[in-house]
Input
Amino acid sequence: MGDAIGAMLTSVALVALAQAAGIGPSMPNPGGTRSDMNGDFRSQGCANLLGGLFQALPSGGSMSRTGVAVSAGARTRCAGVISGASPDTRLTVAGPKAALVATLLKPASAPPLVQAGKITLDGDETVLHTLAGLLDDFDPDFPVVTP
Output
């Protein structure tokens, strides 16, 4: 059992490193220097080790996030840190993971969760209505394979 878990954890780490290796060259360094894969891997490892001490989510590269940042005018890799720490956040939702997932999947579930004390909303609550308008309703029992 322990060997299987170790293999799974190693696989996840390798996929995250492969993503970072693919994204590194697409985002320029300040001064136009080439990306240093070893430095990127060390940084990602240190971030995940330190983040683990604070129960943070794993960090890694994301082509979709990088693409959005570049199209919004980002010029360096610091854009992710700056956008994450931005005071321009319109709504902060806090609570246990299950309640947060429920809120993201079905924003209309937020008011009962707030009244029950499971989540807290800080900011413009109309953002949830905007999010709800962007999501599709789907049947959770949909057939994965149809004949």
About this structure: The first strand starts at residue 91 and ends at 94. The longest helix spans residues 2-23. The chain has seven helices and two strands.
